[in-house]
Amino acid sequence: MKVDVLLGLQWGDEGKGKVVDVLTPKYDLITRFQGGPNAGHTLEFNEIKHVLHTIPSGIFRDDKINVIGNGVVIDPVIFKKEIEGIKGLGIDLSKSLFISKKAHLILPSHRILDAASEAAKGKSKIGSTLKGIGPTYMDKTGRNGLRVGDINSNFKEKYELLVAKHRQMLDKFYEFDYDIAEYEAEWFEGIKVLSEFQHIDSEQFLNDALKEDKSILAEGAQGTLLDIDFGSYPFVTSSNTVCAGACTGLGVAPNRIGNVIGIFKAYCTRVGMGPFPTELFDEDGQKLRDNGNEYGSTTGRPRRCGWLDLVSLKYSIMINGVTELTMMKSDVMDDFESVKICTSYKVNGQEVAHVPYEMTEDIEPVYTEFKGWKTDMTAMTHENEFPEEFNAYIDFIEKETGVPVKVVSVGPNRAQTIDRMID
Ligand code: GDP
Ligand code: IMO
Ligand code: MG
Fold first, then answer.
1. Which helix (H) or strand (E) holds 419?
2. Could you give the count of Cα atoms lying within 13 Å of 1 in the half-sphere of its Cβ?
3. Which amino acids does the record list as binding GTP (predicted)?
4. DSSP secondary structure code for residue 303 in this structure
5. Among 4, 13, 139, 284, which one carries the catalytic annotation?
6. Which bound ligand lies closest to the C-alpha atom of 73?
7. Which residue, 30, 123, 126, 374, shows the most beta carbons closer than 10 Å to its own?
8. Residue 18, annotated ligand binder?
9. 401 assigned to a ligand binding site
């Protein structure tokens, strides 16, 4: 069997958690391959609304194995809270959740370093979630990091050594005031909870599962435009959020990748700083924010909103090799008189149809306008019910991208998901 990869094509928060939960019944294993608690993946079903940060979104379905892969970074404090939250819903994860020994740990001092780094950047700060993601991946690539597999051997010693390095950086480089001790007790409590789960050689585990004909869904975090290589650098996260990240973050070979499911909102949002060519500062932008409840699942920050950007969408499809699209949150635009899609950029007066090296603030979007569908789509269950204007919107996206929109989401609930009948 193959590994299908589901990932965000914009700046995160596309609705990945919801779709993973919807698709989970089709798979044997669900895995996370990168990122950490900077992610907030929301699931809604029955009367439950739940946000996951580190744990894969397959966790609410019976008989499924969920694996936190080697590419993920874990904060034991947040992990403990997540486990307690899920336990509170009567779900026991001890047999269904496995953690890679090679996943790196976010230390309290990583979080402090993140805050120090952002403070030092001043006006040009990234707008990080301040979860310690950047400093933890820096220690990984700098070959200093602590991994889950280290917990059982001289752990305290290794921990102290790394913290001593961090203290030097905070004192000498950042001159930042901090109190690591404040967080340490909670962190070691988290380590205890983490120790109760099975730590595995996840690359072996997953490849064995593939050999046994098990199917795997890899759940991306963040979005392609936040990728460390292909996003709007430096306003990005510190991992490879793209499809290739599933290979390195799980230890599966590229020829093991099957379908690549690209998730996008019918418009765009971004939280944090950085370029956003189609951002709206007018009442349409506010309406998208209000209708879509566009406030961060992890930080509560208002999300910046704008029209759908086909230039960057096509770029994301290209980088990831997307085989099918899922369009989210179309219901948010149900009451718009008209809606727009950006089809090219104007840079220094020249029209360009690709993402330029410099994603500067000076990019002027060129739009195609569509009539709004002015229909409440939230109770629809079949594509036959779609209004003509909505079909025109999807047809345009499919024609421009050359990729079928196989699924349309018309509300946050698991049930509000419509499969389109495309071969
Ligand atoms: P993720 O990080 O990609 O998993 O997305 P988030 O959970 O951060 O943000 C998506 C938000 O949109 C969540 O609050 C979801 O409950 C909500 N959502 C998902 N799909 C839909 C949809 O089709 N319509 C509406 N109105 N909300 C949705
Ligand atoms: P999910 O998985 C949206 C953004 C932050 C900031 C930049 C760097 O829920 O889609 P970091 O904490 O990684 O140093 O932040 O990336 N960011 C996200 N935006 N959704 C996310 O995850 C994000 N994870 C990070 O806002 O701009
Ligand atoms: Mg999110």
1. strand 417-419
2. 19
3. 12-18, 40-42, 303, 329-331, 409-411
4. P
5. 13
6. 2
7. 30
8. yes
9. no
Identify the three-state secondary structure at position 167: helix
Boundary of a domain, candidates 217, 232, 261: 261
CATH of the domain at 397: 3.90.170.10
Angstrom distance (rounded) from CA 191 to CA 54: 14
Cβ proximity of 222 and 134 under 8 Å: no
Number of separate domains in the chain: 3
pLDDT value at 384 more than 70: yes
Side chain identity, residue 421: M
8-63: per-residue pLDDT in tens?
999 999 999 999 999 999 999 999 999 999 999 999 999 889 999 999 999 999 88
418 CA to middle of ligand 1, Å?
A: 15
Q: Is 53 a catalytic residue?
A: no
Residues 297 and 168 in one domain: no
Q: Convert the pLDDT of each residue in 4-17 to its tens digit.
A: 999 999 999 999 99
> Do 179 and 205 share a domain, yes or no?
no
Q: In 132-246, where do the E strands start and end?
A: 198-200, 216-219
% of the chain exceeding 90 in pLDDT: 91
Can you list the alpha helix ranges (DSSP code H) found in 55-169? 76-87, 108-121, 133-141, 155-168
> What pLDDT is attached to residue 358?
82
Asked if the bond preceding 234 is cis, omega within 30° of 0, the reply is yes
Catalytic residue among 140, 166, 265, 340: 140
Looking at the structure, do residues 406 and 304 belong to the same domain, yes or no? yes
User: For ligand 2, is residue 226 a contact (CB within 6 Å)?
Assistant: yes
> Is 13 a catalytic site residue?
yes
Angle at 156 between CA 151 and CA 159, to 5 degrees: 85
- Ligand 2: residue of 137, 271, 297, 316 to mutate (most ligand atoms within 8 A of CB) is 271
User: What's the one-letter identity of residue 369?
Assistant: E
Summarize pLDDT for 259-309 with one digit per residue, the tens: 999 999 999 999 999 999 999 999 999 999 999 999 977 778 899 999 999
Task: Show which of 245, 261, 277 is a domain's final residue.
Answer: 261
Range of the domain at 59: 3-101+199-261
Residue 418, H or E segment? strand 417-419
Q: Helix or strand or coil: residue 163?
A: helix
> Quick check: pTM over 0.70?
yes
Q: What is the pLDDT of residue 296?
A: 79
Out of 4, 21, 28, 41, pick the active-site residue.
41
